[in-house]
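Sample pair:
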Amino acid sequence: MSKNHKVWLLPVAGTLFLATAATTPQPPPPLERDYLDSTNRITGSIRFGMNIHAKFLNPGGSLNPHNTGGTGQRTRGGKLFNYDDGYVLTDISHNFGGQTWYWGYENAGQINESGPNTIDFHHVTAPGLPGEIPAGDSPYMGAEITYDHELGVKDDWHHLRYGIEAAFNFMPFDVDYASGINTRLATKTDTYGYTPGTTPPGAPYSGSYGGPGFVIGSTPINSFTSLSSGDANFQGRYDLNAYLWGFRLGPYLESPLTKKLSLHASGGLSFGVVDATAYWSETLTPPGGGTPGTTYGGGGNTQVLWGYYLSLDATYQVNDRWGVDLGVQYQDLGRYRHNFGGRTAELDLSQSIFVQLGVSYSF
C-alpha cells in the first residue's frame, strides 16, 4: 500500500471510531466520590401531623339518641339494660308463648302506672345531642429518628441506591372540647302486660336469663313518646391526652438528581403504641331550671395499632457528611377507640399525613 493510501485511511478510521463510540451506550457521569462513599445515614426530624381527628362519641350517654347502650347498667347475666329503669329481654326459651322471665324493674311506681295488670318502662333522650363531639383536628408536632442502611448501588441506573429504612417517632396529643347545647327531652314509655290475678315481685327486681321467674309479655301493648315543654341545658367538657410511640420499617430507593440533591422513596410496615388518658364531665339542667345533675368519668388505656406507610423525601448534601432533609409521609394506623368510664374517645390515625424537616448525617 502506498504512503498516500495510508494517510487517506487515517481520517476514515477516525471517523468510523467516533461514529461507533457515539452509538455505544455510555454510563452516567460519575458523581462526587465523597457523596458515594457515604453509604448509611441517620436523620433527626421535626414531624408535623395533619389529618388526624380526635372526638368523643355519643355525648350524654343514655340521653343520646345515637347510643344503643342505654344507661350502661347490666343484668346479672351481663346484658345491657334497654330502659332507664329496667329491662325486658329474650330469655332461654326465646320468649315462648310471647312471654319472658328475663326482665327487671327498679321503682314500685312502674306497676299499674298505665292501667291494671301493666308495668311501664321509660327511656329519656335528648334529640338535640349530636352523635359525636370533635375534640380536635389541629396539626400536631412530634419528632422522628430515621436510620437508612444501604445495601447496594445500581451504577447503570443513574447511581440508584437501595437499602433498608427503620424509624422511631413520637407525637403527643392534647385535645379538649367544651360544649353547651339547649335541647328538649323526649320520654319514651313502653307498657307491658302481665297475667291478671298475679302479683309481680316487689321493686327492685331482676329476673334471670335461665329462669324460672315471674313472666310478663315480651312485646309492648302500648308505646308513646312525650316531649318536655321547655329546653334542657346540656354542658359537657371532654379532655383527651395521648402519646403515640411509632415505629416503621421498609425498603427504600434513592436517586441522586444532582451531585448534592437526591430523591428518597420508601414504604413498608408501621405500628404504633397509643398511651391515652381521658376525662369528661356532663351537666344536665332540666327544663324550667330544675336541679342540675352531673356525671363524670375517665381513665387510662394503652393499645397497639398496626398499618403501613409511604414516604417521599428530598435531601440536600451540604457537605460529604451533613445534609438537610424535607419529606412528606402518608400513614394508616387505623383508629384508636376506647370507652373511658362511660364515654368513648376516638383518635383517627387512618389517613395521617406527616411533614418532616430534619438534619441528616451520612457515614
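The CA atoms of residues 62 and 71 lie 5 Å apart.
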